[in-house]
Structures are given as C-alpha cells and as structure tokens.
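S1.2 Input.
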Amino acid sequence: MADQMVRTRGQVNLAGLTKTDYKGRPTTLCQGCGHNSISSQIIAACYELDINPTSIIKFSGIGCSSKSPAYFLGRSFGFNGLHGRMPSLATGAMFGNHKQIGIGVSGDGDTASIGMGQFKHIMRRNLPFVYIVENNGVYGLTKGQFSATAETGLTLKGHGTNLYMPVDIAWEAVVGNATFVARSFAGDPKQVKELLKAALSHNGIAVLDIISPCVTFNNTDESMHSYAWGRDHEVALHELSYVPPREDILVDYGEGELIDVTMHDGSTIVLKKLEHDYDPVNRSRAIALLEEANRKNWLITGLIYIDTQQPSLFDIYNLPDTPLNRLEESQMRPPQESIDRVNAMMFR
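S1.3 Output.
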C-alpha cells in the first residue's frame, strides 16, 4: 500500500524513474481514439512493474495502431516495419538480444489481413513477446474501409455494407497454439493494465486483442467496435489482479472462488470467478467460449487462455545467457582445430 501511495505522488519507482520517464511523444491520433488509452496503460504497466524502458524494444507494422509506439516508452529502441511483417522483424531482433522485452503493436488490418501468415507463425514458435492488436474494425489511416475484423452487415458511410464474415483474432490465437490469449476493451483501462502486466511476465507469445474504437470512422452505436456497443455488451470472465513475485499475495476481493496462475518468474495472476465458471488453462473450453460469444454477440474480456508449461522459442534453441549480439567473435567462431578437422574430412 505504501509503495502504491509513493507511485501516485509521482515519485520514483524501484527503477529510479518517474512515470514521465515512460512517456513518448505527444499523440497525433484523433482525440478519443482507443489507441491512446492503450498507450497510457502500457506506460502505467511498465512503470508499476519497475521495468527500465531501455530493456524494452518496440515493434510495429503499418496503420494507425502502428504509429502508437511513438507515444509511449520514448527511451526504448523501436522498429517500424513493413505492413504485416512485424512478427519476422521481431523474431530476428529478439534472437539478437533475447534479454530484451519485446512489445509489438499491430492492428486488425496489419495482423488479420496482410499479416495473417506471419501472425500464425509467431504463435506456433512461441516467441516470448507481447503482441497487442489494437482492433477497431476499419482501416482508419486510409479513411475508413472495412478491415478483416469488421462484422457482417456493418454499414459505413462511403463504403457500403460489409458482406464478409469477420476474423476473430482471439479465436485465431487459441487455434494457432498461442500460450497466452486475452481480450480487452480500451474503455476498461484497469483490465487492460492488469492484462498487460501479466503478458509482460509470460514466457512465450502473449496475444492481447484489444477492442479500440475509431472515433472518426467506426464509432456508431451499432458498431461492435464502438464505445457504446462495448460498454453495453462487455462480459468479463473474471476480476483480474497481477501480483509481482516480490510482493505478498494480498487480494482485495470479497468472498468468491479464486484461481491462481503462477508464472515462470514467480509472479501470480489472481482471477476471481464472476458469473462464469471458467478455467483459462482449458484450451477446448476457450474455443467453445469464443464460439458461444460470437453467436450471442458478447464482448468476452479477460484472460481467455494461458499455458505456462510450453517451452518458448529461446528455450527450444537453448540460447546462452549472454545475448548473441554481445558475444565476441572468438565465442562465435569454431576453434581452429574443429575447422582443420572439417577441412581434412572434405579433402580426403
């Protein structure tokens, strides 16, 4: 409690930084854009977790969402890649220095259209990476065309009516064997922040599908990506609290069944069941829940699925403690005796 009071007074965290040190440049997105709310919660989550911004590397593709990394963690390195190509860029960079914490911000077009192939492969490889999809159902940067996540029958001025079935990013993530899948709503900043904290501690790919209303092109009350629709249809699976490994587990909930999920670093996600008797480690139940939510037009939010036992990409390759881009040449080259032995075999 005392630590939280210090934070709210704007003093330094355990990294010796103020919350201002986690900010980026002033946003150029529309006032009220859900992306700005998400950026604010990334700032808050990293500050409260005492993460030094220099240990984070940011990635993005193309679109309004992919401009977002400029607006948070100004001290972090970042790469803005080609449309839909963020996963391969992130994989290469993270292999170069697996000690960095990777955060990627994509959009429903950047991920669910041109980037779907790369999205599938980063999930199956289980790269330790926080993959945020700022999902607004439109191509806002090119004046509001339907994206792959736009619901069937949505009508937008100047673009007619959408005839196609939408892509469900959370469902695709569960089916694609992602080891952490969550959905949230930009209008619920507390939940967004707690999910971000949990994702930053996950040893594997953490996919966060965040419904992020576009206030310019797709915010009619009937749109499933609007603030009004989200508030009226949000169904939280649980109350969520993230407990870092250094703190005692103190839960401020009343009576009710709790589920503790222990992460690889000793931190804990504490889930309090609400009206749903839901277990986030049951993959088949996660798929069934998403299908039910789609049928009933529910905006299911919370931690949908988690697997803390699957080895990450770096575990599979047994990378050394020293990042690859910090190794000396003598550590990377085979010894001369090995080179001589190979040459001798070639010229027998």
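S1.4 Remarks. The radius of gyration is 21 Å.
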